Amino acid sequence: LVSTGAINVSGSTINIDLTSLSISNFTCSTSYIWTIASGASIIGFNADNFTVSTANFAPGLGGGTFSVVQSGNDINLVFTPCAFCTSYYSKSTGNLNVLGTWGTNTDGTGSAPSDFISNNCFYYIANRTVATLTAGTPWTVSGTNSKVILGSLSVAAITFTIPSTSAFTGTIDIPAASSLSNTLTIQNTTIPTFGTLNAGSTVNYNCTTANQTVTATTYGNLTISCTGYTATLGGAISAARTLSIINGTLTAVNGGNNYVISAGSISVGASGTLNPGSATHLLSGTGTVFDNTAAGTISANTGTLKITDQSNTAITFAGGGKTYNNIYFNRGASTGTNTITGSNTFNDFKDDGTASHSILFTTGSTQTVNTFTVSGTAGNSITINSTTTGTHALVKAGGGTNICDYLNIQHSVVTPACTWFAGENSVNNQIVSVAGSGWLFTAPPSAPVESTPQAFCSGLSPTIASLTTTPGTEIHWYAASSGGTSLATSTALTNGAHYYASQIVNGCESINRFEVTATINTSPSAPTANDNAPIYVNSTLNLTASTISGASYSWSGPSGYTSTSQNPTRSSVTTAMAGSYCVTATVNGCASPQSCTSVSIIDPESITQCNLHVKSTTKMVLSHNIVVSLPGKLTNNGSVFSKNPTTDTDTFKFSGNTLQEITGTGLNTFKNLRITNNVGLQLSHDVTVLG
């Protein structure tokens, strides 16, 4: 026999971790029988790896140390009793805190200890199946290397109870029993120091009068039975086999800490409460790794229950119809089935197994999830099915969409519509026609696209309806990349804000959203429009707009007139060019409100007077380009003159058909004098012409 592995010796404990065997002339077997022989006692272990200490030995061996001796291909474990150690054994009756209850012989006879404070003393609770400290009589075992050992592998199980009125102070080992489980029941708030706790042993925190703190250590089986009270983790704990919360509360939250629970399995009784806090708790066993069939209380919080067994053995999560935060099947290449019983609620249901396997839900049950993180891989699909030929229901809560792939769907009904995508590589193997309702075997719609950023002008008061995408139908806009409710189309846009668009195709909304940044440019104020009117026909119209930094201009006017000049002109105007001229200024693509000016154009030939009499108290003032046409007589006893003779071009026109006359005593000063009378003009008074 040639073995390969690690042998670790520490004091009285040896750990053999066997990784390989080479056997000649023997039939290979996966079952290894290790035997430890010392004195008259032989103890067998059927495992490839094991740890053994003095606690595993039958009464009579006492304390000591191991040594390893190799003889050829044999590994010999040599146990040397401690030369300075004394072992005491309890009698079948008597209080354990009484010295006379103990003796050096395995039946409790022999010399009694002189005290419980000496060094190197081992106190074996033996020769009885039940041991309880007497009320009001505490027991302390001290001294270097001294400890209490509850039972042994060679005898039936013993239950040792520490009552609420009698504390035990000291170190205690709990080895395995020949049948059932050696059990330490702690009702006191003083918790003993734990030494070696065999995987088959049980520690029961039985707080009956006050809350307790659970010591951070590795237990075999751990039981919480604290009716009306709370057991709080003092640190991370491990239970090699089962953590049972029969009644009362076990909380992983201690102050600001959230401690981890590692166990083969967890069970919760009808009167039990588990508060996992925010930690990720590990379940490494097989079979029913979480049993809440009795529908105990679960404080979901934000923690995760993570199933880690990598074997191909089936796993069951019996949720009891309760609400949990996250459940995570992290089983690697296991082909074992994961079964979920009860109608439960999960924040996230996750299975990232890399081999083909099945997830079974109890027929007729309903699982409500916010997210369903389950996808297989090519060649390794995950089957979603019921435990029998009936259907189960999966309900998506919390909005959004579940996206999966490489699934084999059977007997599964999902709601709401358009929230469960099995994926393009999944298989619809529904057997019952109603089954599979809601599963979509396509990829979800893609997000719409469009240019970004999109610019708008403040003067137009842009809203969600102003945003554009391609395609542009059935678009929903959101303020976040995921979740939330769609924005009303009347929602005003904010400069620099991000908006996210989804689209609905065939009744289903895209999961991804396209991001658009809205840029709101400030619209300029309206420029001031002006002109040089009123003006006369054939003169030049000058239009002006006030200056706005960085602006371009756009004029519009009568008869389709347009101009992009800030200050345009129109020459040789006609009366048809009169009217309203409007201008806008544009900065960064944003146009201002219009500003308008009204232009008057005068046709001077329209002023005609037959005979004109200017009285002595009257002044006739001509201005601009006015032309006064007179076919008759001008009698001026006042004054006729130009308002601005240096700039005006006014004209006095004599247009009669008979002899016309300028008479009177007034002053006649014309800028321009025009005579179109072929007969003549008679002057009876002085006339001055400036033009």
Could you name the ranges where pLDDT drops below 50 across 5 or more consecutive residues? 20-50, 54-62
Task: Give the total of domains.
Answer: 6
Mean pLDDT: 87
Cα distance spanning the termini: 140 Å
* Main sheet makeup: 24 strands, parallel
Number of strands: 69
Rg of Cα set: 52 Å
Strand content: over 45%
User: What percent of the residues sit in helical stretches (DSSP H or I)?
Assistant: under 10%
Give the helix tally: 0
Return the structural class. Answer: mainly beta
Global shape: rod-shaped
Secondary structure layout:
Layout: E1 2-10, E2 13-22, E3 33-38, E4 41-46, E5 49-52, E6 64-71, E7 74-81, E8 86-90, E9 102-103, E10 121-125, E11 130-132, E12 139-140, E13 147-150, E14 159-162, E15 168-169, E16 171-174, E17 183-186, E18 193-197, E19 202-205, E20 212-214, E21 218-219, E22 221-233, E23 237-251, E24 253-254, E25 257-258, E26 261-275, E27 280-283, E28 287-291, E29 297-298, E30 304-307, E31 315-318, E32 323-329, E33 338-341, E34 345-351, E35 357-361, E36 366-374, E37 382-386, E38 392-396, E39 402-403, E40 407-409, E41 412-415, E42 420-421, E43 427-428, E44 454-457, E45 475-478, E46 498-505, E47 508-509, E48 514-521, E49 529-531, E50 535-536, E51 541-545, E52 552-557, E53 561-563, E54 569-570, E55 579-587, E56 590-591, E57 595-599, E58 601-602, E59 612-614, E60 619-622, E61 627-630, E62 634-636, E63 639-642, E64 651-654, E65 660-663, E66 667-670, E67 672-675, E68 681-683, E69 687-689
Parallel strand pairs: 8-10, 10-13, 11-14, 12-15, 13-16, 14-17, 16-18, 17-19, 19-22, 20-22, 21-23, 22-23, 23-26, 26-27, 26-28, 26-29, 27-30, 28-31, 30-32, 31-33, 32-34, 33-35, 34-36, 35-37, 36-38, 37-40, 38-41, 39-42, 40-43, 44-48, 50-58, 59-62, 60-63, 61-64, 62-65, 63-66, 64-67, 65-68, 66-69
Antiparallel strand pairs: 1-2, 2-5, 3-4, 6-7, 8-9, 24-25, 45-46, 46-47, 46-48, 49-51, 51-54, 52-53, 52-55, 55-56, 55-57
